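Q: Structure tokens for this one, please.
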Amino acid sequence: MIRILQKADINSVADIWLDTNIKAHNFISSQYWKNNFELVKKMLSQAEVYVYEASNKNKIEGFIGLHGNYIEGIFVRSEAQSAGIGKQLLNFAKSIKQQLYLSVYQKNTRAIKFYQRENFHIQYENTDKNTNEKEYIMTWKQ
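A: Here is the predicted structure, written as tokens:
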């Protein structure tokens, strides 16, 4: 089930954010993510966030963060990855937005392939000013 983030979800969602970022972005110091943890936790309550809750477990398995048409990120608990949760979250976002865009680190080839399978196209290359890592800006239109 996909639903809007509730205040009670924030700790669980923040933990998924931290764990997923550290594992998916091993080319960036884990300390970078840890240093941003409290800030992200505060920002979650002010953001447009939708969670995927496993109906049989009553447990949040993943979430998507949006800012207008920008996908801040899709995060899925490591034990639940490759089960279609990220695709369901993305399809939900596609159902409420006519176009979407995002940035993805070039070294995160798994994510790039996922977005390309979902009809996102690379528009241009950029450098993330916070990490100095090269990234792609990718877009999708209905």
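A few notes: The chain is about 35% helix and 35% strand. The chain has a mean pLDDT of 93.
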